[in-house]
Each structure stands twice: as C-alpha cells, then as structure tokens.
Amino acid sequence: MQFSAIFIAVAAFAAAVVAGPAGREVTENTTSASIVSDAEMAHFLATTDAKLTFIGDLPNPLAKRSAQTTTVTYCTKRVGTICGGTCTVYTGGATCLDATGTTCISATKDIGFCDETECNGDCSALSLCGTTLASGFCFTPNTQSILVSPL
C-alpha cells in the first residue's frame, strides 16, 4: 500500500515536470511573441478576415527561404486582442515602408517601427513589444513607417 502511494506521488511529480508551465509554449528560437515563423504568418494570412494588400514579393511557401527575406504584416485596426481591418503584407529585403495609420504589426524577423515617416523619429524594435496581441501581433499605435533590416 505504501509503495502504491509513493509510486503515484513520484509519477504525478514527473508528469508535472515534463508538462512544464501551462499555456506557454517556449521554443529555442523564441525571441518575441510578435516575431512569428513563416508557417504562423502563412496561417494568419490564410485565415484572417482582414482586407489584405500584398506589396514586394508575393509569399511563396515553395520558394527556398532566404536569410535576408522578411514578411511584415501591418494593419489599421485593433479590437480587443485582435489585429485586422486593412492589412498590408510586405515580403522582401531591407527597406523603409510607409506605414501611415498602422495600429499593429507582426513579422517573421525583427523589424523597427517609427512614429515619423521615412523611418525617422522615435523608433522601437518589434522584439521589444510592450502589448502583444493574438496571432503574433504587437500593438503599435501611431506607427508611420517600418524599417526592415537586411539581417
């Protein structure tokens, strides 16, 4: 009888250790909740009700991945934790994007977002997102431009 109780206690402890913290998936490559994988970005684009406009290269899931290619989705509306409205999707290399009216952003690599046009003014990194939203977006009110880095 004592053996059964000890075995059950040890098994329960082992299961808790293996399971880890509930509700948070952490991977080795996690840098920010708003920097998403190519697959997560593709899933958002395939399932969103937002009006999408594509600029730059069209996302191609069959193309070889390039270390210098970034996909950025930036949208005009936030409702609760949902980002949507009219969204622009940029795929390509280093550039400064005009993002007037942007409220929330998600990207496949770290990017900068600025409160003035032409990537001037006060800028912040997406990896330092203060308010994360659903589907890997960051609340970025007053964004006027987005700096996509070559790295």
Describe what this molecule looks like in 3D.
There is one protein chain. The protein has helices at residues 2-19, 38-47; strands at 51-56, 70-79, 82-92, 95-107, 112-114, 123-125, 138-148. It has a seven-stranded mixed beta sheet with strand order 1-3-2-4-7-5-6. Residues 1-31 have low confidence and may be disordered. The protein contains two helices and seven strands.
Share of residues in helices:
10-25%
Average pLDDT across residues? 79
How many strands appear in the DSSP assignment?
7
H-E order: HHEEEEEEE
Radius of gyration: 20 Å
Q: Beta-strand level of the residues, as a percent range? A: 35-45%
Number of helices, where a helix is a run of at least 4 consecutive DSSP H or I residues: 2
In spatial order, strands of the major sheet run 1-3-2-4-7-5-6
SSE inventory with pairings:
Elements lengths: L1 H18 L18 H10 L3 E6 L13 E10 L2 E11 L2 E13 L4 E3 L8 E3 L12 E11 L3
Parallel strand pairs: 1-3
Antiparallel strand pairs: 2-3, 2-4, 4-7, 5-6, 5-7
